[in-house]
What does this fold into?
Amino acid sequence: MSPHADPLTTDDLDWLAPAVVDALRPTFEAWLAEAVAFPTVSLDASAGPEMEGMARWAAERLRAEGAEAEVFETAGWPVVVGTFRHPRATRTVTLYHHLDVQPANEPEWRSDPFRMTIEPGGVYRGRGTTDDKGPALAALLAVRLLKAADLPLNIRFVWELEEEIGSPNFEAFLAEHRERLATDSVLVSDTVWLSAGKPAAPVGLRGMLGVRLLLETGTRDAHSGLVGGVARNPLGELCQLISEIYEARTGQIRIPGFHDEVRPLDDEQREQFVASGFDAGRFQAAHGLTCLRTHDPREMTERLWARPTFEVHGLVGGYMGPGLKAIVPPRAEAKVSMRLVPDQHPETILERLRAFVAERAPDVRVEAGGMLEPFLDEPNEELAGALRVAMRFGFGADPAWVREGASIGAVVQMQRQLGCPILFLGLSLPEHGYHAPNECFDWHMASGGIRALGRYLVALAGPEI
Amino acid sequence: MSPHADPLTTDDLDWLAPAVVDALRPTFEAWLAEAVAFPTVSLDASAGPEMEGMARWAAERLRAEGAEAEVFETAGWPVVVGTFRHPRATRTVTLYHHLDVQPANEPEWRSDPFRMTIEPGGVYRGRGTTDDKGPALAALLAVRLLKAADLPLNIRFVWELEEEIGSPNFEAFLAEHRERLATDSVLVSDTVWLSAGKPAAPVGLRGMLGVRLLLETGTRDAHSGLVGGVARNPLGELCQLISEIYEARTGQIRIPGFHDEVRPLDDEQREQFVASGFDAGRFQAAHGLTCLRTHDPREMTERLWARPTFEVHGLVGGYMGPGLKAIVPPRAEAKVSMRLVPDQHPETILERLRAFVAERAPDVRVEAGGMLEPFLDEPNEELAGALRVAMRFGFGADPAWVREGASIGAVVQMQRQLGCPILFLGLSLPEHGYHAPNECFDWHMASGGIRALGRYLVALAGPEI
It folds into this structure.
């Protein structure tokens, strides 16, 4: 996690010069617009045609650049794999991205989320621009430039279409094709910088457990005057259960045993978090938050990167229209999730949640959604050095070796199935709005990313690693 | 509240004979279908054309039967008044109904709520059939039959179009036209029987205070991984506030001072409630409730008729679609209300709620909705006697002098402005589904209501009262 000595000499890399990369801009913009136009909302069970179209389009792009490309069917949405083989390669690197996206039904969208717009300054707006189609296509263009260097390296793209739903079929896919997918390392490009100018190279991710809490106490809306006092109110009871599960104002989770496996931070880690360049004000502004639980950077970074959370995403049931409608609803659903940290496991946490709910609210049904393991790994020293050089080359700044609060289920699955080092070269900024309305990406991050990734691959092909 | 001696002889009322009433059935059905076809959702600010159409239609119906009818504009939706004057009348009775309805956006509707269907057995299905267009039109047909009797009685219809939103402009209307609206008594037909065969003549209604609780902590959806732990979650905090306001499982309200003015029941009242014919099983079945807070009829009737409630009607904010979307929403709204009992006042309760929220959750905005005073009145002995005779005539059963858990804001307003006794002759059954999807009414209740109301008006015109 400490800065590494630079194992590379600064070569003359004309084929990665800014002017060369800038010449790719029209291609990048055309590709990204085409990719955004596939509404690949993996949560939407009816998105089959869009997913197939996206996979076919992606495989064609890979083939056109010279890769052997294949669309692998799974029990869910497909996986696209494209391999650039070099006859003298002694190593293989795998670049992981995902081409599925979050839903985009927020009323705040100012334009069609699936028709990319280009704004002054090279800002690309649309669902999936930054998460994760933009970084994926930037990586493919880096590989195009790399041909000039004739690097003895096999480069494999793995483009998933189920990341946003927790990669439920990805591990089975990896296991089935483990030999064909053998690789020396993985680079994941699906994470967010600390702030513009402050690259982050996470060494850890939080895990996640999604849950729906369901309560039914009737068969139809009842008049709250005629039944009120005797009828049970499923919305009210779910509110109570939620407030028993956690203290929403502080975030403190009250499920017995919930924190048992949380690996505590030591003072050195806390210092590293604070020294990472995390900026409380920029964080707040970038995510559009008007108030916070705390403004202390030490507490903020610990809460974001090393502590679990409980979150309410939505309460469905009852009357949602204007004004009031005085009914007692017959049923309600709370959509909640927990972010988990090392060494918590979603299965164990789910069991403890179930036990707690069974005790407090035995009529409430607990339906588990996605389960993602948390990830934490001391990065391979040589690869970390190469990444540092690459970020400096692409963006003129060293990456901070921090953690990320979000979850990528595929990472732990690749760790288990491919058994190799996994590093992160994210290209997104907090203000790009992961999962938010008006999501965007920009040419500055794309072009810097092309150069950084190119430089990283040069290092991987070199004798030093 | 005790049974009264019958002040009336059983006259020969051929013009109210069942066969005569049955001959009106096609007219009633045609009228009700026309009335239901106006989607008079008073909550819908854009319902102007429907409201005007309904008011015009209603005034025309009244005029066609011989009334002087007028549509009075108010600051909100209009009020329709129609008076049948008799040259020798020494008394005036006012019949109150409302022609506005609840929204009908529940997914459970099996047919268009604003196209009435007639089902076998004379069941009329559609929004407003039982609440309160059916009872209103039955009353008008009773008055048509009454012409044959040439009763020396002025009969005034007051048809409101804002009952479902708490009658916010009705009292000003009454005050402005107090002299023209002078009346000796009011009969309200907008309440629900204990069960089929068990008429209820309520002497009390609960009041109501509607409130929206609003919390904003951001400007747009944020990614729960990237911000979780530091961002405040407005849905979670509203759940917590709600659970501080009340214990949802028992219904116990925790706002300090909330119960100060609740008039306690004495044992005699409790006995009367239990002896009223209230049937716990029928209650549960009629309202489609699969479980209850209590099954003890004594506790049930006390809870429904004489105790205040807190109710959650809906929580708006966050993600409502299928599955989970892992966002921290920027804002949330809880739609809640309290039913109040004598001698609670909505203004006082609102102040105590505001103080409680200010202490527990100072960022939460409290927006008051409708305020309805509770109502409780020992009914005028002679009128109560007439009502008993009327119900026996129309339905073959004595009414139970109970209370009703629902609220009719107009009642207390009429009590204040018109200063006369107010009685209730409701025609709705619990299974008709007040405010529920697939609301219905039926010819049995309509025809019995025509006969009962006719008999009541005969009594009012007679020398005994």
User: Anything to note?
Assistant: The first strand of chain B starts at residue 68 and ends at 72. The first helix of chain B runs from residue 18 to 22.
